[in-house]
Each structure stands twice: as structure tokens, then as C-alpha cells.
Predict the 3D structure of the following.
Amino acid sequence: MSTLKIAVQKSGRLSEKSLQLLEECGIKISNGERKLKAVAQNFPIEILFLRDDDIPQYVEQGVADIGILGENEVWEKDKEISIIQQLGFAGCRMSLAIPKDEVYTDLNYFEGKRIATSYPKILIDFFARNSINVFIEEISGSVEIATSIGLADAVFDIVSTGSTLLMNGLKEVATVTKSEAVLISNPNLTPENQAILDKLLFRMQSVREGKQNKYILLNAPNAAIERICSLLPGMKSPTILPLVNKDWSSLHSVIQEDDYWEIIEQLKNLGAEGILIIPIEKMIR
Ligand code: ATP
Ligand code: MG
């Protein structure tokens, strides 16, 4: 039987969330001591633990079929792979920063400047699009100290809160792009592996929809049921159950996480009582 190989980051900012995502999809992985490889017990998938920089290459070559990593690495490595899903975690921006006492005008500030980065390709493309000439100092880590040690005039790096920049006497002056974790795939999967991937994608979708929706139960006076139903369309339509008190009913439905505070206000105004909002673990339409 065929097994789908997924590459995830061995240790770093993406590791925990990547494994959590697989676990939420019901995939059980026993890998206490983080070996290089692990096989799921109840799903035809094998997990390869790698450095995130290497994942695009391994997926291109088919050593791994799919992988989870930051879009920033996907763009930088520029391999023949497909992004198949945004995953909504490890969000960050890729920004240019300069010493905090410098006066920044606009992008032309960078003309002729030396910029240190671990993402030369993304940076070269960006300045080429803006017709600005810069010198790039490629380094593989600790980019934020590059200006203070005299390696460069500015830095280009990943930023989430900006505190690392601040601590190193830098200020963020321009955002080049935003990035988050994505699921990538080799573009030529075998039909068997494509079928396993489709199963996995279906599960991911159920988890995502579950997170984006809430189950709602409430008691409503019968006279208000019609108006309440119009606020709670549910997956098909709400379920209405009679209460012992003949003038009241219990109503069950599903609402979107984003609008439930708004809707609850309106439900209360219509006379709803005993409103319960319950998380949904998985949702299949
Ligand atoms: P590896 O040893 O696997 O190469 P790394 O040091 O390159 O690890 P991490 O720092 O663990 O990588 O970051 C992995 C990814 O997490 C980044 O490529 C980026 O997509 C995302 N990320 C989110 N926020 C941040 C942040 N504040 N700093 C760095 N990366 C971040
Ligand atoms: Mg890396």
C-alpha cells in the first residue's frame, strides 16, 4: 500500500503547529524522541522531520510528496512545487529595517545601500521591480546584528512583533511582503498518493470549518421563532424542539465564529434565553 510522505520542520516555530494540525486531522504519530522519520499508526502517511530550508527541494525531488513550511521559504527557494493550502499559522511579515536614528524618506533611501538578509532572492526581485540598486550581503542567521557590526547599512528579515529589531537598535521602515505557513505539494503525485492527499485535505477542511463555526442552542418564545430562524440559517435550517412549556421551543443551529457576538445581541432582543455557544471539533457540510 502506498504512503504519502510529508515533510515538516524538525524543530522551530513551525514544528508544533504542523504536528498539531495532523493530530487534529485524527492522525496519530508516535515519535517521542523526534527521529528523522515517523509513521502514522492510523493513516497512510509518513512524517519526515527536516530543516525548513530543505523542504522545497525535497518536495520538488519527490523525496517528500508534500510539506509544511513558511511561504517565505517557498518564494526564496523557487522550486517546481505547488502551494495547495494556506494554513493560517506562523504569520509574519518580511520587512526592511534601518538603524533607528537614520532619517527614512521612501524606498529610494536604499539606493546604493548594503542590505543583509537570508532571503536574497525575494529582496533582489523586490528592488528590481522598484528599479533601485542595492548590494546584498547574504547571511544565514542573526541578521539583526548586521548593522551594528558594520556588515550592512540595513537589514531585510522576518518580523512578527518587531521586538527583536527594537532590541538591536533598528526600526522597521517598509514591509516587502507577508507570509504564513502553507501546505506544498510535488506537482506530479501518483494517483494513489493524490488520493491520500485528497483525504487529508478533506480532513483539514473539516477541522478548519469546525474552528470557524460554533454550535448554538437557545430557548425562544414560539412567537419569535420565525424571526430568530432568519438570524440563524444554520447548515440547512435550524432544528426546533418543543419544550415542556408549550409557549417555548429549543432551537439548535450553527453560526460563524466571526459574527456570533453581533447575532447574540439581536437574539436577546428577540427574547431568546439560555443561549449556549459550543465549540465544534469537526464540520462536514
Ligand atoms: P530551521 O532550523 O528549520 O531552518 P529556521 O531558524 O529557519 O529553522 P524558524 O525561526 O523556526 O526557522 O522559523 C520558521 C518559519 O516560521 C519562518 O520561515 C517563518 O515562515 C515563520 N515565522 C513566523 N514568525 C516568525 C518570526 N518572528 N521569526 C522567524 N520566523 C517566523
Ligand atoms: Mg530555516
Q: What stands out?
A: The mean pLDDT is 94. Residues 4-89+181-189 form a domain with the D-Maltodextrin-Binding Protein; domain 2 fold (CATH 3.40.190.10).
